[in-house]
Amino acid sequence: MSVIKIKNVTKAFGDKVVLKSFDAVFRDGEFITLLGPSGCGKTTMLRMIAGFERPTSGEIWFDDKLVSGGKTFLPPEKREIGMVFQSYAVWPHMNVYDNVAYPLTIRHCPKAETGERVGRILEITHLGQYAKRFPNQLSGGQQQRVALARALVAEPKLLLLDEPLSNLDAKLRESMRFEIKEIQRKLGITVVYVTHDQTEAMAMSDRIFLINGGEVQQYGSPEEIYNAPVNQFVADFLGKVDFFKGEVRQGRIVFPAMGGQSIAYDGGRTGKVDVAVRPENIFFSENGELEGVLETHYYLGDTDDCRVRVGDATVRVITDGFGYAQRQPGRKVKLSIRSFMVFEDDGMLETMLRIQT
Q1: Labelling 213: which of 123, 258, 275, 355 has CA 20 to 30 A away?
Q2: What pLDDT was estimated at residue 357?
Q3: Cβ(316)–Cβ(339) below 8 Å
Q4: Which of 251, 261, 252 is nearest to 308 (CA)?
Q5: How far apart are CA 145 and CA 129, in angstroms?
Q6: Where are the beta strands (DSSP E) in 27-154?
């Protein structure tokens, strides 16, 4: 078990600052995801936690032990961590059992204890029946589970995962998300997971730290960040969203790009605003406030992804796929909005409103 304390950590390579003043406490047994676009600093933070990089300033603590900071630096092999990388990095000349047992073998762990611990972790990772197979006889998902089992067999206090699913196909990636989360729950260990995939972050995390340009934009539970983003970058990065320029007039928000059409508003803002609407929060309704023309729709089985032309603006609507055949391009439609977010000009969230229709 491990609590990770990160105190005002920064990282620069020469004159380039890649991580600015990172402060956080990752609680014991928590699944933390560092999320953000490529180059934002998330992998650099993970590498500093692992001990592969030193902070330029600040401190990193494991429980009450300083591992990085000032003149103190504990190397990776002494941090009691397990790590899984994007590449599987399994030994091709060893079978599954020997791959998983390797961390115990190099520590000269007794044979009986090694067998017991490897057997247990192979069952947890659903690899028991593949113990004698070699990596070239395994699928990509099975090889990734071998890498995960090898990281877990030494019973680390902390598991670090650096985009471990990015080489897998979409369906396998989805199933592996839940397998990793279930393994973490069974073992009760602290996990720090790096990804740029917001769906992975939403599905697996207890808390998400969303990073952009080396700075944490927002952190919290998936629900908190998704439903109450602090700025437009967060709203746009986590989930699907459309932004529309509007102006508050007499209890309504008027949209110039929509030909002056408007929606009811009882918030505290006046003047010009930016309105963010998630497409699953818009629906077709005979009593809708907005009127437009259905331009295109894409049948995805469980959903129908529609584009509606409202004035000069395009409004995205994601609805269930059941009524796909009845939605014909060129047809006039009305739209109601369940909820929307209002932002000030500087991008900070002013309020979140829910309209029951």
Answers
A1: 275
A2: 44
A3: no
A4: 261
A5: 13
A6: 31-35, 57-62, 65-69, 72-73, 81-84
Helix (H, G, I), strand (E, B) or coil at 216: strand
Our measurement of the distance from residue 241's CA atom to the centroid of its chain's CA atoms, rounded to an integer in Å, reads 16
Give the pLDDT confidence score for residue 279 in this predicted structure. 96
Burial class (CB in 10 A: 0-12, 13-18, 19+), 332: exposed
- Token readout for 169 is 């196909």
C-alpha distances out from residue 127 to 133, 135, 141, Å? 10, 12, 11
Cβ-based neighbour number of residue 52 at 10 Å:
14
C-alpha span between 8 and 112 (Å, rounded): 45
Per this entry, what is the length of the chain? 357
Sorted by where each starts, the structural domains of the chain and their CATH numbers stand as: 4-235 (3.40.50.300), 241-354 (2.40.50.140)
Three-state SS string over 144-211 comes to HHHHHHHHHCCCCCEEEEECCCCCCCHHHHHHHHHHHHHHHHHHCCEEEEEECCHHHHHHHCCEEEEE
**Interval 338-349: pLDDT, tens:** 999 998 765 655
Q: How many CA atoms lie within 13 A of 314 on its CB side?
A: 8
How far is residue 30's CA from residue 267's CA, in Å, rounded to a whole number? Answer: 36
What span, in angstroms and rounded, lies between the C-alpha atoms of 27 and 7?
14
State the Cα–Cα distance between residues 206 and 173, nearest whole angstrom: 19
Question: How many Å apart are CA 84 and CA 145, to the nearest integer?
Answer: 10
User: How many helices and strands, by DSSP H and E, does the chain display?
Assistant: 8, 22
Give the Å distances, CA to CA, from 17 to 10, 187, 214, 218. Answer: 8, 36, 8, 19
The pTM of the full predicted model, rounded to 2 decimals, is 0.89
